[in-house]
Each structure stands twice: as C-alpha cells, then as structure tokens.
Write a structure and sequence with these properties.
Blueprint lengths: L2 H17 L3 H14 L4 H13 L3 H14 L4 H13 L3 H14 L4 H13 L3 H44 L2
C-alpha cells in the first residue's frame, strides 16, 4: 500500500469516527493525517467541523483558515469558518464569510441558510427572507434535477428490460 492509499484509509477511519460522533478520536486521526499531508484541505475542514462540534471554535477557525490559505476558492471552508465565528459571537466576520462562500459558489444553499439565520438573529428579516427564497429555489431545482435524472435512469432501465424480455421470448 502506498502513502496515498494510507492517507485515504486514515481519512475514511476519521470520517467514520466523526459520523459516530466520536469527535475527539476524529480530531486525533485527522491530526495524524495532517502530519503526513499538511495541505489536505478536506481533512482540515473536517477537523475544523469536529472542533466546532466539541465547542472549540478557536481551533475550528484555525483549521478553516489553513484550508482557505491552501485553496482561497474553497467555499465550504468559508462557510464553516463563518459558523465558527458566529459561535464565537463575531457576527460581522461570520456574515462576511457566509457572503464570500456564496460569491464563490452561488448554488451553495446551506451558506444562504446560515446567512439567513444570522440576518434573522440580527433583526434583518427582509434580508433573511431573500436568502430563504434563494434556499427554496436551490432546493426545488435540486429536487427537479434529481427527479429528472431518476426518470432518465428508469426509462433506460425499462428499455433494457424490454430488450431482455424480447430476446428471451425469441
């Protein structure tokens, strides 16, 4: 097994621990991975999220900062850094990060949702309502796209079944 395979296994194990709410173990494993590959932005973002789940927003911000330094166009890191900053009570910086995530990835619905929640908390209901409209539009678009893809798959599957049935009836 090569180093890249080792990192994939380590990351999978860390994600598994994260999904089981074993955030401390996940942080530990991701730390080991980052010792071997300090530029693994997904590991940094996952570890930052685990820190956030353990109510360590300062450590989370550090990881998100590193991920952004590695990839300044990584919308998820901006969004999650905004969540961490909001947790720390820094609403202005959180709003900047949510907005930056949206600028980088305009279809990133959860960033709109986070920004809407913050707008609402700040008493800016009109802005919150606009972001919720966008979340609703993105959600409906995604549902429609999924339904269309599913219908294409079903149509193709039915065609294959028809072909098999006609071949079997020969």
């Amino acid at each position: 097994m090569n180093t890249n395979d080792d990192l994939k296994v380590l990351f999978a194990y860390a994600k598994s621990e994260f999904l089981k709410n074993n955030f401390g173990k996940s942080v530990e494993l991701l730390g080991k991975l980052l010792e071997k590959d300090p530029n693994h932005k997904l590991a940094l973002t996952t570890r930052g999220t685990a820190h956030l789940k353990m109510n360590h927003p300062d450590a989370a911000v550090e990881d998100f900062d590193r991920a952004i330094h590695i990839d300044p166009s990584y919308a998820r890191a901006y969004h999650m850094r905004g969540v961490a900053k909001e947790t720390k009570g820094d609403s202005d910086s959180a709003m900047e990060d949510f907005t930056k995530a949206i600028e980088l990835k305009p279809e990133y619905g959860v960033a709109y949702y986070s920004r809407a929640a913050l707008y609402s908390k700040l008493g800016k209901e009109d802005f919150a309502a606009e972001d919720i409209k966008t979340v609703t539009h993105i959600t409906n678009t995604n549902i429609e796209a999924f339904a269309n893809e599913n219908n294409v798959w079903r149509s193709n599957q039915l065609r294959v079944e028809d072909m098999l049935e006609s071949e079997m009836n020969r």
